[in-house]
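seq:
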Amino acid sequence: MGKPLVFSTETYRLLTGGIARELGADSGKIECRQFPDHERYHRIRTSPDGRHCVLVGGTIDDSNTLEIYDLACGLVEGGARRLTMVLPFLGYSTMERAVWPGEVVKAKTRARLFSSVPIAAEGNQVLLLDLHSEGLPYYFEGALNARHVYAKGLVLDACRRLADDPVLGCTDAGRAKWVESLALELGAEAAIVLKRRGADGSVVSGINAQVEGRRVVIYDDMIRSGSSLLGAAEVYHAAGAASVVAVCTHGLFPGDALQQIRASGLVERVVCTDSHPRANSLADEFLEVVSVAPTLARALGAA
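struct:
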């Protein structure tokens, strides 16, 4: 079938390079520049004709989302035999479902956008990493095949490095099933933060496991502002935890979020992947960043 030809959006060049090396694949070249009115120009300089083309990019904002869409259309129109879009970070998870009448479910509308990319001769597929909701692949429509890829191996490795005998924790009951699955594979105990309303309307928090004197490794699929992480860390410390560290797949850390987590003193260290490009720019002794390139390359190899 031949080696795939791997292309990247502007912000995902570093991760894409890692994926191409892992695959032993060819790297495609794209010319990108901006007009004075901020319209962007793209030209695919490496011919995709007859090739299995892999396009790596994340929906980190609307501009990046449209860049993926534009390039995907260009690759198919340029003759790509097969198209695989790799989205290490699928944004819009805040709006994965409507709560109030009239709310626009952005996760669904963006999935429809990618579903409208012209179909290559041998089909289109999209690879999605550690989704916030298991149901998101079903938002993609028509002939586009959506696959959920798990970075569980990376998460488990990080947990093992952070503690010899950890308690696996989560920020709330919503992630309990996944944390319990991780704990089972590690042979560790899972600790779930339980919240309920008190008689006076206040929130009373508790946990379902003994953490006194032990290190708690909190896992969440995504850390954004860090407020949920810090709230859970406070509960674990109040229950006597010796220390708290955190592992996540998607580290967004907008603004000074990482600085706030560090300054709180509640979390000793954070480990995340490079699924979001901001993580690499913030990596230091407090934030360790591990690459998902091998995980995504294996998924591509098995496709």
